[in-house]
Amino acid sequence: MPDEPIEPIVKLCGIDAEVGNFLTGPGVPAGTSREASRALLREFEGIPPSDREDAPRGGALPRHGFARGRAFPPVAGSGPVRIFRGSYDNESPRNPQDWGRKYLPSNGGCVYIDLNHLELCIPEVRSAFDHLAYWHGMLRIARSALNLANAQMPPEYAIRVLVNNSDGRGSAYGSHLSFLLHRRAYENIFSRRVHYLLYLASFQVSSVIYTGQGKVGSERGGDPVRFQLSQRADFFVRTVSEETTSNRGIVNSRNEPLCGDRFAPGWNGHHPARTLARLHVIFFDNTLSHIPCLLKVGTMQILLAMIEAGEVDCELLLEDPVAALERYSRDPELRARARTVSGRSLTAIELQRLFHERAKRFVDAGRCDGIVPRADEIVSIWGETLDDLERGDIERLSRRLDWALKLTFLERAMARHPELDWTSPGLKHVDHLYSSLALEEGLFWTAERSGFTHRLVGDETIAACVSEPPRDTRAFTRAMLLRSVDPAAIEEVAWDFIRFRSVDSGRWVSRRTFEMDDPLAFGAEKAAPVLTQEGSLSEMLDALDAIREERSPS
């Protein structure tokens, strides 16, 4: 018997993206990402969780925590430079993949360290346009932290940050997107309908023509190549897997909804995590140009809405997504072909055209209304980008796509310096400079300042995303609570709850956990009047709990 139709869900989205970070200067040894990431994390103003007894209750990490370390060789004219060994004395993190997490009162996002890489997380947003703006806002916050950290270094030394996904020497770090979808749709993808999973994988693989940042060379023992579209392509060895640091799959199956305990019986058996799921997408590159930032999110929102609706065309399934990814990524001329299960041999542009045609019909029929904000604009920009790719106009593409802009810089560097070729370390240096976060050396920022790149959101919008949370998700209430409550009263913060702690005159400790299990609730419309009214913390939380009850099904 066929399933009942799935009620579509707003395609809430977010990102947790690692960056490359290291130290440079005379006598700096190899392998300084640990020290660089911790020096950067120290400069973010946020609220850390209290999973360590010696961790402070809120506020920025203590500067005196950097008292211990080993020294670089002395530099003429300066004292020894410390390589910091951690954010706290006697550091012994429980989980090196999620260490020192700090939630930001400024905009509701967070930062932490993942395997010695600084990781940036925007607050939850509904719109791909908001996603773009908050991503660039988070990069501005990270740049401020970088500048503060470097101001404490002698001039001969510097912390460098690269907004990319590969060190060029066999190591990759992720740029992970998250999307809200109905739990039944999630189960269809991973447990019941294998063609849904292949549909998702085939779409992602063919999207590298506009979502890749591009890189010089190959990694993980792959055949030599001059340039490829995707920085991540060399690191995917399966179609699906749960792992994120090895044996990576194009489609990631991590089942972590981040909307409360999925086994809790609350809401009369209708707890959000029983009906909601989070698709964890590890496939895409970090991007800087506005169009790929928008499209990798907006097109996925539309595609997931189609999957929820059962609009899956098996004619579009790639026979071998992993092999197709290698072909498509390694062909910047966009002529490579891969076979579908129906026996057709398609270029990535041709396959994306088929996805676009079906998505446009879906959007034109109004089936993204209320689910994917500004879906018609996303489809239009998607179609224009495919037109540009078909024409192969590299100058126009370089104004719109990261890989094309990077390729332009690389080819100009070789034209000006004939001693450079595709195997030269100097050319790989240009590759890395493209994504440098520092305004004075990042090649992308140079192009943006000159007005060369195509922009979709303005500076004022991005600036607002630095200091204010989204007003239509739970990120609003998270940020406002972190601003208004004494940090000493905040015991632990997570995406879906905040735990408060108080001590009365008799030194009796009491705790209360405020659940934000519905990521679409607690926006400004309902929560702002509660958060601005006079009263105790307990009264405020009671009123916020009432908002949850209003959304509870009967």
How would you briefly describe this protein structure?
With 554 residues, this protein is an alpha+beta fold. 37% of the residues lie in helices and 16% in strands.
Distance between the termini: 27 Å
Could you give the count of β-strands? Answer: 19
pLDDT averaged residue by residue? 89
Structural class: alpha+beta
Strand content: 15-25%
Shape: globular
Largest sheet: 6 strands, antiparallel
Low-pLDDT runs: 49-92, 262-269
Estimate percent helicity.
25-40%
Main-sheet strand order equals: 5-6-7-1-9-14
User: What gyration radius follows from the Cα positions, in whole Å?
Assistant: 24 Å
Oligomer: single chain
Summed up, the helix count is 18
Helices, strands, pairings?
Elements (H helix, E strand, L loop, with lengths): L12 E6 L1 E5 L8 H9 L27 E3 L10 E3 L14 E5 L6 E5 L2 E5 L6 H24 L6 E5 L12 E8 H10 L1 H13 L1 H4 L3 E2 L10 E2 L7 E6 L6 E5 L19 H4 E6 L8 H19 L12 H9 L7 E3 L5 E3 H17 L10 H17 L2 H5 L3 H15 L8 H10 L8 H7 L9 H9 L7 H10 L5 E5 L2 E7 L5 E7 L8 H9 L4 H15 L3
Parallel strand pairs: 12-13
Antiparallel strand pairs: 1-7, 1-9, 2-8, 3-4, 5-6, 6-7, 9-14, 10-11, 15-16, 17-18, 18-19
Helix pairs in contact: 2-7, 2-15, 3-4, 4-7, 4-8, 7-10, 9-10, 12-13, 16-17, 17-18
Verbal overview:
It contains 18 helices and 19 strands. It has helices at residues 33-41, 128-151, 183-192, 194-206, 208-211, 272-275, 290-308, 321-329, 348-364, 375-391, 394-398, 402-416, 425-434, 443-449, 459-467, 475-484, 524-532, 537-551, and strands spanning 13-18, 20-24, 69-71, 82-84, 99-103, 110-114, 117-121, 158-162, 175-182, 215-216, 227-228, 236-241, 248-252, 276-281, 337-339, 345-347, 490-494, 497-503, 509-515. It has a six-stranded antiparallel sheet. Strands 17-18-19 form a three-stranded antiparallel sheet, with no helix packed on it. The protein is globular.
